[in-house]
Amino acid sequence: MDCMYKNPNAQIEDRIKDLLSRMTLKEKIGQMTQIERQVATPSNLRDFSIGSILSAGPAGGSMTFENALSSDWADMVDRFQKGALESRLGIPLIYGIDAVHGNNYVYGATIFPHNVGLGATRWGRCYEGYSEDTDIVRKMTSTVSGLQGKPPEGYPKGYPFLAGRNNVIACAKHFVGDGGTERGINEGNTVLSYDDLEKIHMAPYPDCISQGVCTVMASYSSWNGRKLHADRFLLTEVLKDKLGFKGFVISDWEGIDELSKPCGSNYHYCISTAVNAGIDMVMVPFRFEQFLEDLTFLVESGEVLMSRIDDAVERILRVKFVAGLFEYPFSDRSLLDTVGCRLHRELAREAVRKSLVLLKNGKSPEKPFLPLDRNAKRILVTGSHADDLGYQCGGWTKTKYGVSGRIIIGTTILDAIKEVVGDKTEVIYEQSPSADTLATQDFSFAIVAIGEPAYAESTGYNSELVIPFNGNNVLSTVAERIPTLAILISGRPLVLEPHVLENVDALVAAWLPGSEGGGIADVVFGDYDFTGRLPVSWFRRVEQLPMNPAHNAYDPLFPLGFGLTSTKRTPLN
């Protein structure tokens, strides 16, 4: 307590100034460094004063063993934190995770619907966005307050905020325009005037900043040919100076390496360009000793000014003080039992119900097909996605790219159907229905769940967007013989063949609903009505992309905002 920065009653800016004055250049650069868990050791954290660790990589999660529980994660993070606190000044770590729809690397955690169910286009990361409509995205920035807590009235604009120990540091990303690249190419080039960039893609960021978002991540993509990680105008002059953001800007995974070709070949240039542009913390993530050495050289040679280093470290320390890390650096063990609890799963189930969009209900206005009869004599459940939690959750679930199978704790669509139907109802499940089953069984109706495999980022790039796993044919085969509800599990609109759309009796866009498949059964069997509307335009043919509702040639299969209800034949207003 003889040091002001250790005094919890002192003003945060005074604590920052005091701590910064005590730090060596080596310690400052250490704070600007984020490393991957696999290269983190107690001695590295102590000796280099590393600022942050993350768990990531293609395998996802980067945990020491499979199906690690919340207590295992808490033990690991606390061990790392102990190493950081043994550094000369005892500056605690920030631990970074990819948790775009729940803390998906923790076994037993609740997995919420991907953002697309709460936006989508041709882009392989489209399910990470909320909508093609800027206004909808702006409304969804309330997620920041959901994670961090809501700042009190009169809280300083742009200043990072965290309400308490039950909250987590949020990251607004990816700044800026990564959803507007040419042909939807991941890490591509967004060609727009500044006015359009500001109006379409930047508009949600002031909303995040006004809620005290602590961090912003730079995009891999380019704006008019200039990489965002190298764009001082956007990162410093706009984000920090014009918009007043006072948290810290973090790079994406090896994002600065992409500033030279071959990737990372001129590391001096990559580091100096990114840091001078306004990157405060660098997600290195592996060759951190090279980063520390090179940035030290760049400062000592004058290519990166000490004032830029001090600005970056001030921002990082500001977030750490705001988050209460100096007072409470270790895990709150009282929260461990809440992971995957009933309350969380009920909330996720509600989110599923509200995200479902009913695209068709009956072959004629006079005869709606939904809701389904839960006391029907015999129901056929089929399709590649009817009993697959991995596909139901999509990418960023257990691993970065996601996998098929019962990989988490949750309820599949099949599980949910079996739970809600009557005691005398027979449920027949075949992933691929045989000709014999279709010909000899007397079914009241069929539920066919089809869709996309799990993917993330560039692995999801697709220029055809047909339903995978022969989905259109499966639907046709079943719907020609049995009254059919089709449930489409996907991160974006897919091509719906006209004859298939005509044959099915009802069609639901369920997006990537997550672990709580019960939310689907709640709605299709009539306990709740449909309230979801399309966050994106549903094209007829991929050649129509990109689509713009403001254009005269706009002719979608289903327009932005479309959605039916079970009880009302006209679209929702």
In short:
With 573 residues, the chain is of the alpha/beta class. It has helices at residues 12-22, 25-31, 42-48, 70-85, 134-140, 143-148, 194-202, 204-210, 232-242, 267-277, 288-300, 306-322, 342-355, 389-393, 413-420, 435-440, 471-479, 498-503, 518-524, and strands spanning 33-36, 52-55, 94-97, 171-175, 189-190, 215-218, 222-223, 226-227, 248-250, 282-283, 357-361, 378-382, 426-430, 445-451, 484-489, 506-511.
Explained architecture:
With 573 residues, the protein is of the alpha/beta class. The protein contains 19 helices and 16 strands. A 6-stranded mixed β-sheet has the order 11-16-15-14-12-13, with helices on both faces. Strands 3-2-1-10 form a 4-stranded parallel β-sheet. It has a 3-stranded parallel β-sheet with strand order 4-6-9. Strand 1, helix 3 and strand 2 (52-55) form a beta-alpha-beta unit. Helix 1 crosses helix 12 (306-322). The N and C termini lie far apart (60 Å).
Number of strands: 16
State the end-to-end CA separation. Answer: 60 Å
- Tell me about the largest β-sheet: 6 strands, mixed
Mean pLDDT comes to 93
The whole-angstrom Rg is 25 Å
Based on secondary structure, the structural category is: alpha/beta
Beta-sheet strand percentage?
A: 5-15%
Residue runs with pLDDT of under 50 for 5 or more positions:
none
How much helical structure, as a percent, in the residues?
25-40%
Q: In which order are the strands of the major sheet placed?
A: 11-16-15-14-12-13
- The count of helical stretches stands at 19
Q: Globular, elongated, flat, extended or rod-shaped: what is the shape?
A: elongated
